[in-house]
Amino acid sequence: GKISVPEGVVNWLFKVIQPIYDDGRRTFHDSLALLDKFHRLRPRTRVFTHSDGSPQLLLSIYGTVGDSLPLIMWIPSLYPVKPPFISIDLETFDVSAISSSLPVQAYIDSDGRVALPILDHWNPATMGLIVVVQELMSLLSEPSRDRVPSLPPKPDAMHSPLKHTVPPLPPKAKFPHVQPPLQPPPPPQPPFRAVDLMDMDNTDLSPTNHHEMLQNLQSVLNELYREDVHYVADKILTRQTIMQDSVARFHEMVAVDKTRLQAVEQTIEQTMHTLNAQIEVLTAERATVQEFSSTSP
């Protein structure tokens, strides 16, 4: 069947996925199927920072699901072996706005990351991106379904109709718009309907978007380079200051030692003068003694 994703987006998606992902075919199919099913989602490439601090260029699918929940989905390079990373865009959405009665609250941490139960039991053969989004949407509306079994106080209504027939009416008004997302997810086969796109001739694809992606990546790398340069410059300035202080202290020590050396030289010179004077006195006394000895009978 015909897909609703614009041809330009399809061509761009195909071109950027191939050099990044190990399984480019499956990643392309699942991403295209997700965009075709949820029209408020958009693709882009961004640098993802892993928990160890290493950056990596990945495909990111973002947009709103449900009523107005801003979703960010990062597709890892090992997809579908590894499941996608799901988070809430905290820059445009306050998590506290989500009702505390919704079960999705239990799976969102303070950084906006969403640990869906399906991700803990990921099966690449039967699961895909569509199933992940459907799981998230079911958690946004599941409490209303949980309340349906708790409403059967109909047996008691037989005894006091005025009291028990009125309360069940308000919940019923909420069910119609909640039920559609609660339908069981379809099998993940639909993504593979675009298989013919993998065999198309891509020699006429415009490189504009690809070049833009490379320019964005280069901008990020340039920014990282500038940060490294500033860091190195700060380190050099710090070392230069330390070395200048060390040289100044060294000159001070040399000056002190020079002053002490001059004092020692002066002391030695004075001592030599004193010793020479004493030698002269002793020489004169010796001459007097010798002269006296030679004149005595």
TrEMBL record:
Biased composition range(s): Pro residues: 167-191
Protein name, as recorded: Putative ubiquitin receptor
Originating species: Saccharomyces pastorianus
Gene Ontology, cellular component aspect: ESCRT I complex
Key words of the record: Receptor
Every UEV domain range: 8-155
SMART domains linked: UBCc
Name of one Pfam family that matches: UEV
